[in-house]
Amino acid sequence: MLLHHRILHPRLLVPIVSFSAPLPRSLRSDHPLLLLACGRRNSASLFARSHSLSTVAQLAVSAPLEVDAPILRKIADGEDGEPQVQIPLDKLFVPPGVDLSEAASTASGRVLRGSNIVLGPYARDAQVATAEFIKSSTKTEECPTDGLPEFALVGRSNVGKSSLLNSLVRRKRLALTSKKPGKTQCINHFRINDTWYLVDLPGYGYAAAPQETRANWGEFTKNYFLNRESLVSVFLLIDASIPAKKIDLEYASWLGQNQIPMTLLFTKCDKRKKKKNGGKRPEENVEDYQKLIREYFKEAPPWIMTSSVTNQGREEILLHMAQLRNYWLKH
């Protein structure tokens, strides 16, 4: 599994947009976060800056993980009743410093709960001590220029981005929430611990917004993704309380097509639906989404199940961000 998806080559079914502009320096093959696929005899030896994308792509689809057990673990419901999903070993996200081919017997204890992410040596300094709103921007050029690493939250309108952000920092109104979609209309930067940023982006798919407004949101969001050199990863929020939406798959496809790092955050996992009413439970929708995403990607992206109501996934998200951030800073 890739640490980042800037080298991921999706088998696109319905690309949402194409770009004629070349990738900026931060997205090219010499970027330090262009890591190769892990799950090999010596995955650390495959981390490189100098490989071309074509070479990386060849390596990323070769040499499957040599582990006998098809399922690393199946987690039963925890004490808090949070459901889990089965995680095939070859669908795990393996960070730098972890070699599952040599340590498969002990790796199960390092898989973050409710996710496919293995906890690695860079997962430190994950707690949030301070959080403050810095500024809103409508252009990438207006964003903070201090170069601190940042993680962007994006998803369909009303998927729960602002609620998740508030949950991560344990502040009820750091990011304003609303039952009406389209509340977030700018690139909003929140500085965490004075060392990194959470970025709240406008939601997509809000049909009630004027066409010109939606076009502006989409344009400056895409420009931010393609040109923001301090962007460590995009966290794409998916509503797990409902079946997968085509627009979410297309958005994930576009991120992969443009080699933009991505983690899937499944929101609203606290919402339980009874089968007798025809609705699926969140963990079932998550599993269905995993099957669908495989039609777009050769390898599944990292993902985490979350709930802003119960704080499910909060610690897992912060640990995942920490190991991505610390590796980014070191390299």
Automatic annotation (TrEMBL):
Domain of life: Eukaryota
All residue ranges annotated as the EngB-type G domain in the record: 147-327
Cofactor names: Mg(2+)
Record carries keyword Magnesium: yes
A GO BP annotation: cell division
One Gene Ontology molecular-function label: GTP binding
Pfam families (alphabetical): MMR_HSR1 (PF01926)
Keywords, ordered alphabetically: Cell cycle, Cell division, GTP-binding, Magnesium, Metal-binding, Nucleotide-binding, Septation
Family that this chain belongs to: Belongs to the TRAFAC class TrmE-Era-EngA-EngB-Septin-like GTPase superfamily. EngB GTPase family.
NCBIfam families referenced in this protein's UniProt entry, alphabetically: GTPase_YsxC (TIGR03598)
Alphabetized HAMAP family for the sequence: GTPase_EngB
PANTHER family for the chain: ENGB-TYPE G DOMAIN-CONTAINING PROTEIN, MSS1/TRME-RELATED GTP-BINDING PROTEIN
Protein name per UniProt: 50S ribosome-binding GTPase
Phylogenetic placement of the source organism: Eukaryota, Viridiplantae, Streptophyta, Embryophyta, Tracheophyta
